[in-house]
Design a protein that fits this description.
Elements (H helix, E strand, L loop, with lengths): L1 E6 L11 H6 L1 H14 L3 H7 L2 H5 L1 H21 L6 E4 L3 H8 L5 H18 L5 E7 L3 H9 L4 E8 L2 E7 H13 L4 E4 L12 H11 L11 E2 L6 E2 L2 H12 L5 H11 L1 E7 L4 H9 L4 E5 L2 H12 L1
Parallel strand pairs: 1-2, 1-9, 2-7, 9-10
Antiparallel strand pairs: 3-5, 3-6, 4-5, 7-8
Helix pairs in contact: 2-5, 2-7, 5-6, 5-7, 7-10, 8-9, 10-11
Length: about 300
Amino acid sequence: MKTAFIFPGQGAQAVGMGKDFYDNFDAARKLFDEADDALGYSIKRMCFEGSEDDLKLTANTQPAILVVSVIVSELLKAEGITANIAGGHSLGEYSALVAAGSIKFSDAVVLVHKRGQFMQEAVPVGEGAMAAIIGLDDDTIIKICAEVDEVQAVNFNCPGQTVIAGKTAGVEAAVDKLKAAGAKKAVILPVSAPFHSTLMAPAAQKLAAELDKVEVTDAAFPIASNFTGELETSAADIKRNLVAQADNPVKWIACVEAMKTFGAETFIECGPGKTLCGFNRRIDKTIRSLNVEDITSLNKTLAALKA
């Protein structure tokens, strides 16, 4: 039976995440300390003690979620649970690449911190927005976004849930049009930038320069690429697709389908929240989805796997 590790993206963060791992596992303490050294500030203090506003800042959120996600994958490995394939949503793709040995943990922590900075710098706060569109088909969403300046569909999360992004006024206009076209719900998201839209092109350029400074190696097992929706192991493809991922849509449905086609039967969401488990249920009800975000869910998942 093949197992996929899947890793969450931004929005899954919560103050307190990772603390019970830190308190109970040497491996977790080592990784938090390594992250603090790499970043030059205490990401563990931010995770454990807040404030929520600081943790919500993109440049902090991204390394915080990555650290907790990688800790989960390491704790599973220590229990003999290994991935045959992996994928991650947006930021989560970096966690997947660490798990596959393609990018060193300390390099990835710094990369996603800078990625967060670059994304925020690309569009000043208030000038960009994102909205979740519920209950409307992708073709209609794409068509309506094309009618509005600088707005596009950017996250194809699961059937019936697609996220759009762009300039704030454009997203608001698109939301009105999409509601009129039959969307059950269209909600402006509490984010600080229009991630994965073409407005992120300056961030992608800066990210390319940073990726050139770190060693990226072939992955030990296939990784589902957000940019292509296909599986990759080659270092050159991984690097190229990480740059493209910053200002192109996340094809998460295609990622899950690719992992299923590979033969993955059990998907374990590694990191805070259960968002990706929820997407799985909408993509294919037959997928066995488990999650690990704290010691309680770790024990529950280990028991389920050993049953």
